[in-house]
Amino acid sequence: MTLSNRCWESLWAAGTTAEAEVPGARMSTQGSHHLKPVTLCLAPQSVVSPSCQRRHTLPASEFRCLTPEDAVGVFEIEREAFISVSGVCPLYLDDIRHFLTLCPELSLGWFEEGRLVAFIIGSLWDEERLTQESLTLHRPGGHTAHLHVLAVHRASRQQGKGPVLLWRYLHHLGSQPTVRRAALMCEEALVPFYQRCGFLSVGPCAVAVGPLTFTELQCSLRDQASRRRNSGC
């Protein structure tokens, strides 16, 4: 469930990278007039191309399914992204643990240098449209992956991570034979974002959270690959 534009570019960050401090060298001048010059023999150094150096400085990225052990980190990102904007979260900590225990294969986390920067959590649903029950249930016989939440760490927002993660998630779902489509609900302002990523609006969602209302969108996994090539996602 997505609540605002700020939320969706919400997906976590790996934090700031500390720079190593090199202590300044100090040299004593006592008795320096007795020192004789010494020729230093330095071992030849291998030449590293600029392209290799650039690759070495890039953060290592990893995409993997989440586990219950990731739940606390997931919730910290989600809480900052959603509660600060709307006062509610799509999933709370117990809900996160619940889904990551029942269906971890329907989640995907983006890690940089071992730190979670963005994630999606989903579950299976077995009806044509989302309902209030779909917010809390996982139905293993279903063919629809319900995307409960997508979030980005605040330090990693405005970097295009949301669309990249969503595309990878849909590709991941496509490798699961029983999953035929993905579905989600979001506020009206976010509909264009999901449409660029291959989702189609199917109308107002039956689910409401307090005063918030949502649009339901669906994406056929059979058509997802071709849509990806022709979209801005």
Can you give me a brief rundown of this structure?
Pathway: Aromatic compound metabolism; melatonin biosynthesis; melatonin from serotonin: step 1/2. With about 230 residues, the protein is α+β, with helices and mostly antiparallel strands.
Molecular shape: globular
Question: What assembly state would you assign to the polypeptide chains in this entry?
Answer: single chain
And the CATH topology of the domain at 58-182? Aminopeptidase
The pLDDT mean sits at: 79
Domain N-acetyltransferase: 61-222
Keywords: Acyltransferase, Biological rhythms, Cytoplasm, Melatonin biosynthesis, Phosphoprotein, Transferase
Pathway: Aromatic compound metabolism; melatonin biosynthesis; melatonin from serotonin: step 1/2
Protein name: Serotonin N-acetyltransferase
Describe this protein with a few key phrases.
233 residues; alpha+beta; Aminopeptidase; seven-stranded mixed β-sheet; 7 strands; 24% strand; disordered N terminus; GNAT_dom; transferase; biological rhythms; cytoplasm; melatonin biosynthesis
